[in-house]
Amino acid sequence: MFAQRLALCALLTLGASGGIAMAQQAKPQYSADDIVGSFAKPKADQCVSRGMVAGDDGVCEPAKDARGFSLPTRATSTPSASTPGRSTQARAARQMASISQPAAAPAPHRDLLITFKLGSAELTPQAKANAQVFAQALNNPKLAGMNFEIDGHTDATGAPDKNRVLSQQRAEAVKSFLVAQGVSPARLDAKGYGEDRLAVPSQPYSAENRRVEARRSE
Fold it and tell me: Which pLDDT score is estimated for 19?
């Protein structure tokens, strides 16, 4: 009878420890393919906003103009009293180009959904699961030639100088984890912005502001 009770206690202990281990094994919140899709190829509207088109290799390229052109003849190229000179025409063309030139689209970026223990730079089990998937994506051939900035952000809780230090520590912690997963450190640049770039400016203390983003370096 005593032996049976010992065996039962042992089974319960093993079951409890196994349940804790299962709980600590967090599942990633996105896949490596999701990350590759976010960075490998710019969205068509991003290229259009630059006055360009998306090439097959995922790089924005100048739009090809199929229209031909002709050189002016001697008769038409000679400025007259009623025709502005070449310098005036060139200046006007440059002004029109500067006005019509669209603003450059921001570099692709993504929230990595990296969380930390309160007030520390220690990654949670969920953060490690997500960061491991991100590392797998960075080792994908489609992203092999790209560099990334790892940006750390905090909310407005606490002193701004301490928030900046903490955000830098968290960005460095993510970089170190990625390097441990086989990503070259030369491809990663860790930067902490503290509370300077709130995701939700109207709610400066929101948890959504405490984040780590990956931004493709241009």
Answer: 46
